[in-house]
Amino acid sequence: MPIAKARAMTKGQRAGAVKRKQAKANTGPTPSRAATFAPKKRKKKNMGGSAGENSMVKQAQRNYTGSYISGDLGGVQVSNPSYKKYYKGLV
Q1: For residues 84 and 68, is the Cβ–Cβ distance under 8 A?
Q2: Is the pLDDT of residue 50 over 60?
Q3: Quick check: is 91 in a domain?
């Protein structure tokens, strides 16, 4: 790795880079390349539990564009605001 890049890295980053590069099998006529920096870990989205489920229900209630003027879908109260406005005198 270039000395300028190594100087800009922390001690732990340098150690990890050297370990990754040494662990890469270098067989054959062309050199195998290993990343200098480890790939960043992605955060997992909350797919379960009450907090994620509750926010999904609230978003569905806000963005509902179905044919119900006002009703209950699977225990979730939904209403279409434009239909409500249009049929306000009849319902």
Answers
A1: no
A2: no
A3: no
